[in-house]
Write a structure and sequence with these properties.
The chain is mostly helical and 724 residues long. Helices cover 59% and strands 3% of the residues. It has helices spanning 2-6, 18-28, 36-47, 71-95, 106-111, 127-145, 148-151, 165-172, 185-204, 207-212, 225-235, 263-301, 344-365, 370-392, 396-411, 415-419, 421-439, 446-455, 460-463, 476-485, 492-499, 504-511, 515-532, 541-556, 563-575, 581-590, 603-612, 627-647, 649-654, 664-685, 694-715; strands at residues 306-317, 331-342.
Amino acid sequence: KAQQKLKLPVAPSLQRLQVYRWACQALATPPDHPLLPLIWQKFLQLYLRQPGPEYGLAAGGCIGRRFFQASSQVALLKDLRQRIQEVSDFHHTASQALRVHPPPTPSSESQDDESPNNPQPPYLTSPQLHSELVRLFGVFALWLDDETLQKQEVYLPSLPPEYEPHRLAQVMQRQQELWLEYLDQERLQYDEREVLSLWEKVQSEPTFLQTQNLGFTDYTSLSNARKRIMSNLEKHTVPLPAPELQELQAPVAEVPPSCLTDSKASAKLVQQDLGVLQDQARVAVAREAQQVAMEQELLEGLPLLFKNRPEQVNMALECKGKGGQPCQGAANITVTCERVQRQEAVHNQITSLRRDIKMLQTDAMAPPPQSLAQAAVHTENFITALVNIYTVQQSPAVLQVGVSAFYQVVSFVCEDTLRHPPTRQYFSSCVEILGQVFIQGNAKECGRVLKTILEQRLLCPLISPFFTPNAAPDQFVFLYQDVVTSLHLDTADVIFMLLTKFDLSHWLNEAHPVFSERTRLLELVHGALCVCGRDPEPELLTPLHLFAKHWTLLLRHHFPDHYSDCLRLLMTSSADQLLSPECWKVTLRVLGCLPPSRSTKSKPEQSFSSAVGAPASPHRSPISLSPQQMEETVNWLSDYFLRSRLSKADLRSFGLYSAWVPYMSEVVTFWEHLIGCLINTQVSSCTREPVGSSKVIKALQDLHSKLVKLFKPWIFPLDTTDGG
């Protein structure tokens, strides 16, 4: 909080706080040091601090205890309390000593400072001062142990005299006046005189005596500095030479710059690293399969562990006698019963299996080898460097390396890597990054991506997001052809996923393909609808709806360019019962023959439409055929059904109904729409003509002849002798 408030770039260490520094100084200072009472005074001024309203705090207890909450700080506070007791004991013992001054003599006064054989006696502090210090440190102990001072504000005059409230008030108010009365002034003066006497002795000694005294070194002479330094160095051990410089090898090798522009070098790097990951996945999958097999064997053996076996047991039946006659003894009988017995062979086998399973689990939980992490990080570094350099400058060489690396990673994806979650996740991330940067939207790679998916269907969820056929409008039809020719019952899910990548509406409106390309695509869609069949399997329903959507998009585009082709393909395939009636329904909705009702749409269709983004039928206006198109359609249908009736012997004999039973409701709806439009056209053209006029009669005769011609192949018998 202090760092944030003061906006310090770095938070200072806790040990730099004054309260800890004075505490450590109080512990390190000897008990007989004259400045020790002042050191404790400084510490207690911080420990017993009471910050008031001037700091934005409410009046309360002291805050020193808050700085001693951690375990190490609690131990420090405990040492402080123990140290106070030790210092108090020291001064108590020292106060018992007697202070005796030696009697001064004239001879001793003149020779004390000059004779080393007659040193001065050591200085002794007065017992009265020791007693005062005992009392002072006792007061310190009371302050330090009283938790009331830390928890709440205390009225100091109410404290007992042994607390010395006036001194406690000085401490809490942080009065900087030092308690000099507790200093040993005589001791300080004595030490000062000792140092001064030694200094005068050194300065007054003749130079020749200093040189003769080998044990004396003149520390004031600048000329002897070199000698002193060398003498001190000779007293230390010879330093060891500097350690040899050892080159540290990076845990992950650097990516060579040549790998970012050379496809062969990058392929070698990727193969070497991903091979390690693939081997690890295979080992993990094999270990999993082994554990499943052993657990299955264990489950099969558990029911055989115990078995009931017949066993004869001898039993004695006691009797109590009868009629007062004693019993002659117990009756011994033999009973045959079944008793459970453990099969030792099965038990040994189960014990061995459990031991093997535990060993296998221990191996599985072992940390992976370092080479595995190195390979993963090395490949990640390569991909990152490749993407970064391509982002800065889209070089063809780097693009080629990126494309090559994408297919290299894809080639290492197999069933084992897909089954092992860590490897699957890693490969998916690599493919996603490379695919988004180098493959997605690349027109040259659409065909190769599609070929890879069709050859290895398990890769479809992994790399299908990067299949963008709209990026290659010139190859759109050929790519669609490859997808349609691969449509089978077992590939329906893959084909559906690929079909969702073809945005046919965008291709038609943006690429503006020529009529021949659109016709070829229409034939491919028709072929796919025929592959789905009249009664599609459940697996083919989702592709069928997508193909039907593409069928209607082509029919609507630049209508009536493909109207005749759609009608021709629809009729020829329906004659052989190759199409689903759903194809008729979507076609009739486009032509306005069926109402686009939401209520008739099933729930699977609704969910499918929302999933693939197909426009709902009610939001697309139907196409209205012109009177000329209506008439041409009726004439073409009349001729087509007549040719169809005459094409086969069974149809000539039994009619068209049997061949068109699956589509009769749709055919009736289509004819009803056509005939109704023809009648409305004729009525609208004759509204201003009088009834019975030649024009009205001619119009009715023409309409009647067209209807007769339309129904003739269905209801009129054919004379097989003259060919009709």
